[in-house]
UniProtKB/TrEMBL annotation:
PANTHER family: RNA 2',3'-CYCLIC PHOSPHODIESTERASE. The keyword Ligase applies. Pfam families: 2_5_RNA_ligase2. It comes from Planococcus koreensis. This is RNA 2',3'-cyclic phosphodiesterase.
Amino acid sequence: MQTHYFIGINIPEAAAKELAEARGQWNLQSHKKYTRPQDMHITLLFIGSAEETQLQEAAQALEEISQAPFDLAINGVKTFGNPQTPRIIYAAIADSAPLMELQEKVREITRKFNLSSDQKPFVPHITLAAKWAGGSEMEEAPVFKMPSISFRVEEFSLFRIEPQNMRKYVPQATYRLQEGV
């Protein structure tokens, strides 16, 4: 099996714990996978498999990204797929120009190295539950309560996906955002 990679923002520990606690209050039993707090992230760009030299060159080029840290806020809970049997339940991210700017910079750099395998529109989100387990459908429009959660983004990382490990997303390189840029 080939190793896959993505570029993303790791969710700070306190915010991730709050998200997991909110999800815990929903008593969900509808999905096969529930994202552990240490694996919560926002994917900026899914790469998939890549040649080592391409990956190393892209990792070095990502160091050139110049952007100041910024704040993000959770803007409710949404789903991907059929609302009654959703593939994914996620924490939606409030509109953020700095986040969109960072994602576009990442996309542009990876495109230079033919690593832009993901052509879907960018929908900033934090996956909370995945893979519908079957059984009875959810209500017409389930309401998932989510406290007001915000956090500061000070870095992003190139992650290796290790599905068999306790920590499924392992940073390979981390890039600090800098004040005054």
